[in-house]
Amino acid sequence: MPDDDYDQFVTDRLDRLLRYATALTCDKYLAQDIVQDVLLRARQRWARIGAVDVPYLYVKRMVTNEYLSWRRRRAARDVSSTHTTLDELAPVVADPAVRHAERDAMRARIAVLPRKQRAALVLRYYEDSTDAEIAQILGCTEGTVRSHISRALQKLRINENTPSEVLR
Amino acid sequence: MTEQEALIREAIAAEADQAVDYRSVLANLHGKRSRRRPIALIAATTLTAVAAAVAVIVPLSVDRSAAPPPPIEQAAPPTGQTVLLIGLDDSANTDSVVLARFSPDGSIAAASLPRDSWVDIPGVGMGKLNSAYVQAHTAAQAEGRDGDAAGAEALVRTVEALAGVEIDHYAAVDMAGFAALGDAVGGVEVCLKAATRDEYSGVDLPAGRQTLSEDQALAFLRQRHGLMQGDLDRVVRHQAFLRGLVAKVTGEVKNDPAKLARLVGAAHAQVRTDPGWDLLEFAGRLTRNISVRTATIPVGEPIEVASGWGFPVSPDLVRSFAAGFLADWPGSTMAPPATGEPSSDEGCVN
After folding, report:
1. CA torsion angle for B123, B127, B128, B129 (degrees, to 10)?
2. ipTM over 0.85
3. Which chain A residues are closer than 8 Å to B7 by Cβ?
């Protein structure tokens, strides 16, 4: 029953796919559009996709490609402004607040990484994928995966020291 | 794992947590399949969702001072339609309920019903207007039925019984969806009379004219605590935001294909209508010479009720009000009743 199989897949994996796509795009509505589109397309071809070893990997690859080929890229979103403003107004005393601000600043830095670097980063640190899996999803060699990730890490490190107004 | 990697993990997880609720997407996917419509219509549906969004936006937002809505070139059909416009928060509370009459001549009458109105809910008994939707929604979901449709239908029956009118269709949109529509057009400008900050809604905005980001817009639309008139002030904010949105759409967005595409996408994702509504036909009603009048149904002074307090409403008064206000008067352009807004800082809200 390919239809039941597909329904089961969607029920099991939809939440995870949406979260993955949101981490990838930094835009929950774009993520929703991409995941919806991909799942509707996957349904047409489910007889074939459902037969592969790990359908989730296959669909994740579709989502990733959709994101990488998306043309009208939106300007990087100002994810940190609210908290930055709050922090300026209220003296920061508790450690969790500092951590929160650091985390949001990191989110903003990740959001402006080149797409392939961001995808590699999300796959490693969110999906806990191996280099081999990442290579398969991005359609490149493992060496390229490692270079994407090391470049991304380097950029995030450099950016740590740049003046904060760049980040706002 | 290094400190930096730990922070990256946290940051990516926080980003992933922003994902939309998968249940709504699941409902979308199921809806796309079970709908017995030809495939070709799906593209048309995307376009007509904009018409639905305009249908939600226009009647709520246009008043004496607002610019005329965008011209849409098609003749008005011969019959009028009565539509219930529903604004929801993320817990299925109906924060905004508007009964709108689209007359054959293109004029629109839009009557707001305060969510705290104390009314008879058919099959349930007396309750606040905003409990009609959420109760039916919860009950239907518990039985595995479509909660959104059940909620909207219950609210439609309640308003029909109260106002003595027949409602032809409904359109529902989440408050987050409103904010997303604003974001899709590149931000909406509003004007605040005073700086405002409130922890419940997360709002933190200065006084004066400003363009809201999506997060700010949502907080602006949600804030009820700390406002002198609570929900009644909030309704005015909804109208201000919608005016700003319409101004933006009719100003720059209609000539910007990228923004227009995003607006179409957002409207498609955010606005739900009843399945029987012929939106193509409806879009044809939004004619060149639309005139809009807005008002609020007559309510009494707040009284104590079982669940706190509410506005008492007399069905007789509401019916005679509805019969007059929503009547199809050819060429009617009656000015809306004054809302008590001062004219010195026109358009600015609390």
Report:
1. 20
2. no
3. 102-103, 106
